[in-house]
Amino acid sequence: MVLYHTWGILSYICNVNDFSSEISYKTARSGGSGGQNVNKVETMAEALWPVSSSIYFSDEEKILIQHKLSTKINKEGYLAVKCSETRSQLENKLIARQKMEELVAKSLVQPKKRKATKPSKAAKKKRLDSKKKESVKKEMRKPPAID
Question: What architecture does CATH give domain 2-108?
Answer without folding.
Answer: 2-Layer Sandwich (3.30)
